[in-house]
Amino acid sequence: MTETTSGPARGSRAKGGKGTKGLRVERVHTTAGIHPYDEVVWERRDVVMTNWRDGSINFEQRGVEFPDFWSVNAVNIVTSKYFRGAVGTPQRETGLKQLIDRVVHTYRAAGEKFGYFASPADAEIFEHELTYALLHQVFSFNSPVWFNVGTAQPQQVSACFILSVDDSMESILDWYKEEGMIFKGGSGAGLNLSRIRSSKELLSSGGNASGPVSFMRGADASAGTIKSGGATRRAAKMVVLDVDHPDIEAFIETKVKEEEKIRALRDAGFDMDLGGDDITSVQYQNANNSVRVNDEFMRAVEAGESFGLRGRTSGEIIEHVDARKLFRKMAEAAHVCADPGIQYDDVINRWHTSPESGRITASNPCSEYMHLDNSSCNLASLNLMKFLSDDDEGNQSFDAERFAKVVELVITAMDISISFADFPTEKIGETTRAFRQLGIGYANLGALLMATGHAYDSDGGRALAGAITSLMTGTSYRRSAELAAVVGPYEGYARNADAHKRVMRQHADANDAAQRSDDLDTPVWAAATAAWRDVVRLGDKHGFRNAQASVLAPTGTIGLMMDCDTTGVEPDLALVKYKKLVGGGSMQIVNNTVPKALKRLGYQPEQVEAIVAHIAEHGNVVDAPGLRLEHYEVFDCAMGERSIAPMGHVRMMAAAQPFLSGAISKTVNMPSSSTVDDVAEIYHQGWKLGVKALAVYVENSKVGQPLSAKTKDAEKGEQPAEPERVVEYRPVRRRLPKGRPGITTSFTVGGAEGYMTANSYPDDGLGEVFLKMSKQGSTLAGMMDAFSIAVSVGLQYGVPLETYVSKFTNMRFEPAGMTDDQDVRMAQSIVDYIFRRLALDFLPFETRSALGIHTATERQRHLETGSYEPGDEELDVEGLSQSAPRQAPSASVPQAAEQTPVAEERPAPREAHSSTELAEMQLGLNADAPLCLSCGTKMRRAGSCYLCEGCGSTSGCS
């Protein structure tokens, strides 16, 4: 640790007064004399997590304490993943306070020990602000921090590692060992094998070398073994090979050949599903492969020229290949099996802050961390939705000032962690302490863009994303320069000072050249411009504390911890989500961001209600009532009828990349109709647009699919031990008595007048409906008579009113339009009006709210307070649920006789166990995602990795 110096003189954010040392910390969210814990309501929850396939309990801890605003999913994941101590023992953590205190107190103590704060009072403010931000899900550290910090085990804080391997057997065996130790700790690692001589070169003994591809087999088998025994997640790894390596074609074809093997074995009757008994015989399945291309190769591809492959020992060209054919071979392989991805070497090293200490040759498994060999990076991600503000008039703004202050707080904490952190190998520890690489990023970008009325694939969406990314990285390096003034620059800075300052100017120039779009992004760009000016000025004076500051990681488990709707830089998966409820059960909801987006776009509450109800029914916005065609793109998602075009993903990456120290973890999803040429074009455009790395996945391209819901015994045709007895149930009609209470309502819909009489059972359950239109003898009047008789008979046979309401609301035909009912101002048809009115008169609040039907008073209350009903915490009414397993309806809903069981008409909530499964059922698609090994639910993509919404497990960094 270098000796501290007096602090920088830049306002109150981080200044040391004359003759003082350390940071002055200001309060942003907290109040002096009040602890953040005392400002929230705490409650006890029971966490019981099961494998839905066999009903077994995976995890159980009862009575854990969390704030009342934390979701069920966030509570479950944090309790099961991050609480330390054996379950059932006094040492086991029992609440969020203990978890946050364990981490935050460690950070504060280390900050004081290593001279970061100007006074104990500043240290206390730092502790309170950090606690508040974690408590309120404003940001989160990566998983290793929660696993390890403040415990008796090694305090590893990094999730991302890059290793190295040289052309010697000793180095190769060290690679196996180091990689295994990192996997054992629940993290991932990447490395470049290009130093290993090719199979076309000779050994010193005179024989042919094995080549890097052969050594990949041993590492792959090791990763597969550790994966199955890991307690936190499967092993994640990245293998990179330079495009000029003589074995590059064999490297490209490794997974293609294995995919052919999978097809052949499957056709022969072997179980080749993901997680199947026979899939383990297939090689190279435990790593992501990437080819490292340079500008020379890409120019040769464009010109159709030959390209030289160089020997590893001599560096001389030993073979020429057709660059275009080699590039197409990469595209063909990726089209078939999603590998290899591509990394652009010259772009990566053009933005390298420490080139004098070595080139960047590889990345971590998810491709966002790129720096020196034998180094690591600890991550933290901010929840962007926490910085979106709405005023009383409905105007939105992104709070750039508060965002910058939180970035400064997080960067300070992240740098402190390196001072006390442990590392899996001494080499990694030395490099990380010498260069202090950080990886601040964000989550919920997709949700933020939708909520602000921006299409993900739009100039406005890219401008806002670029502005936020630029402000984040600019603020991070500004704080890094301020930290350098207090506790000194990183050890490798002096050697790399010119290069580091050059890269800072590159970032500042990119910021100045970026396109401004609207009233949301322009103020953020202004704040970013001011930050980059400070970076250049303070960097010239003090240097920098960190060689790297920012990346965009997948934010898998921590995204769920923060209750984020979207991960990393990803768009929303689909418009309808799967949500767990307090006390058990689940429901499907329309994303909370949809009503915000519609309000931003100028739609009235009645229109918002109708559009949201349509989405709940259909899963998309196509033909939504009143939604203008030009606004459809705002609601485009990663999956579905209106999915984002592949180039839309690449353009978003290009918008953020110039403002990141590292890269972006992202897979470009492509439809099954995509061709090899389409894949090649994505790879080519990635290079042209300045992206550092990307991967593609063509839908349904891989043979291995998740195991079906059928049991193995059922698949093999085995019979159950005892035959099942089939019982047939028939409904029984429950007639109304002669005397019955009723309500008669007059109405007008689009100028057509009518009367509705709704009669009830004595116990207050709706039993019949009569409809009369003003023009007697007309076809419409006759149809309404027949329709009302059919509905009445159905009610008496036990069909729930809720079912009729969900089926007939939003049905569109003339007459339609304005009504004379204050609670239902617009109707798509007479049928739409009738069942909205019946829902308001006969269904309990919780049931009709879940169907998106509210009175005028309730809508007004929502506009004023953000809630339709005070105290309604278990139902996410802002999302407007469409269907779910619910508690037994109240007496206002007609019940059939005891012997008349009524089947649940919507099977989706019973069968879907994650948003991915729900999207598949709504949209009729196959997400091609693996099943979680812990809880059996289908995972979803998070960057280049997969995330389980059920238990928080990931397939890579988090």
TrEMBL record:
**One term of GO molecular function:** ribonucleoside-diphosphate reductase activity, thioredoxin disulfide as acceptor
Domain TSCPD, by residue range, is 740-840
Under the heading InterPro entries, the entry gives:
RdRp_reductase_class-2, RNR_2_N, RNR_lg_C, RNR_NrdJ/NrdZ, TSCPD_dom
Q: What class of enzyme is it?
A: oxidoreductase
Please list the cofactors this protein needs: adenosylcob(III)alamin
Annotated Ribonucleotide reductase class II vitamin B12-dependent N-terminal domain ranges read 47-137
What residue ranges are annotated as transmembrane? none
The answer, when asked if Disulfide bond is one of the entry's keywords, is yes
Q: Output the GO biological process annotations, alphabetical, semicolon-separated.
A: DNA biosynthetic process
> What keywords tag this UniProt record?
Cobalamin, Cobalt, Disulfide bond, DNA synthesis, Nucleotide-binding, Oxidoreductase
Residue ranges, compositional bias (Low complexity): 881-899
What spans are recorded as compositionally biased (Basic and acidic residues)?
Answer: 903-914
List the catalytic activities from the record.
Answer: a 2'-deoxyribonucleoside 5'-diphosphate + [thioredoxin]-disulfide + H2O = a ribonucleoside 5'-diphosphate + [thioredoxin]-dithiol
Give the matching CDD domains. RNR_II_dimer (cd02888)
Function, in words: Catalyzes the reduction of ribonucleotides to deoxyribonucleotides. May function to provide a pool of deoxyribonucleotide precursors for DNA repair during oxygen limitation and/or for immediate growth after restoration of oxygen.
Name of this protein:
Vitamin B12-dependent ribonucleotide reductase
